[in-house]
Structure formats: C-alpha cells, structure tokens
Write a structure and sequence with these properties.
Layout (H helix, E strand, L loop, with lengths): L1 H23 L2 H8 L1 H16 L5 H30 L4 H32 L5 H33 L18
GO molecular function: xenobiotic transmembrane transporter activity
Protein name: Efflux RND transporter permease subunit
Keywords: Membrane, Transmembrane, Transmembrane helix
Length: about 180
C-alpha cells in the first residue's frame, strides 16, 4: 500500500498542478498556488507527531484531502488578486485588498472542514483507528494552514507574481467590499 502511495501522491499533486494551469493559464500562478501545499503539510505532520499517530494509508489519504483544501484556499486568494490587478488596481493594494476581502471565505472553508472532522479525529470508538489518522491530518493541517497561507502566501505572490496592472478601460470600476 505504501508503494502505491509513492506513486499516487505525486500523481495527485501533478494532476492538481495541471488543473491549476488550465485555470490560471500561467505557470507562475500555478506554482504560487501549489506553494500552499507545504504550509498545510506542516500542520498535518505536526498533528501526527503530537498525537503519536504513525503514518499510515489513512493518513496519506488525509494528506491528499488536505492538499486539495489548501490549494482551494490559495485559489480563493490568487484569483481575486488577479481580478483586481486586471481591473487596474496597483499590485500592493490589490494584494492587501484580496487578503482582507477573502479572509472570511478562507476561514469559513477551513472551519467547516475542521469542525466536520473533529469527531473523527478524537473518536476512540471501535473502528476509529482507521478514520482517526485521516481526520487528524486534515484537522491539524487546517488549523495551521490558514494562518500560514494568509501570512506567507501574500509575500510569495508579491515577490513572484508576474501579473502586471492593466490600464483600466473607460467606465470600468471595481467595487471593494465594505
């Protein structure tokens, strides 16, 4: 099973990367979005270490789910940033606005996943030894990932995003969230 995971996990990340490239049509944006995976990975590994739970197939599946959730958070931030820059907003202001405006959706996504898996993460009932590692990885990653994503990801976007501000078309306005 572990040998299969050595093939499946990289293929999963590659597939996520391909889908991101189709979405953004930019290698830089794809790599920026994939950069959130190590941020989530830290929380998942930390959760396994704290609880003394060994790495297993169930935990590996949890990491795959965690990668998907964390990439979704990156997409939420980066796509809004790109919309603002494309509308003519200066890059630093667009990055600040994207983080402020998308803070709530990122946190709600994380909280929903975390709260939904808390019972499985702390269960001691019969059969919990199978679901517990998966839930621990996702909950641990989700508890740490949003803070890292909201702190580190904007810095990475500011440093490596190649998107340039376009001259706004006449009568084009971008509404900022109140």
């Amino acid at each position: 099973a572990i040998a299969r995971l050595r093939v499946i996990v990289p293929l999963t990340i590659l597939l996520i990367g391909i889908l991101l490239y189709f979405n953004f049509a930019s290698l830089a944006d794809t790599l920026l979005t994939l950069s959130v995976i190590p941020m989530a990975l830290i929380g998942g590994i930390f959760a396994l270490l704290i609880t003394g739970t060994p790495f297993s197939v169930s935990a590996a599946i949890g990491f795959i789910a965690l990668f998907g959730i964390s990439v979704m958070e990156g997409i939420i931030l980066l796509s809004y940033y790109n919309q603002l820059v494309d509308a003519g907003i200066e890059r630093v202001r667009a990055l600040s606005e994207a983080c402020q405006t998308r803070f709530r959706p990122v946190m709600m996504t994380c909280n929903a996943a975390c709260v939904g898996l808390l019972p499985a993460a702390f269960s001691t009932a019969i059969g919990s030894q199978v679901q517990r590692p998966l839930a621990l990885v996702v909950v641990g990653g989700i508890l740490l990932a949003p803070s890292l994503i909201l702190l580190v990801f904007p810095v990475l976007v500011g440093l490596f995003s190649r998107r340039e501000r376009q001259a706004p078309a006449e009568n084009t306005r971008v509404r900022f969230a109140e």
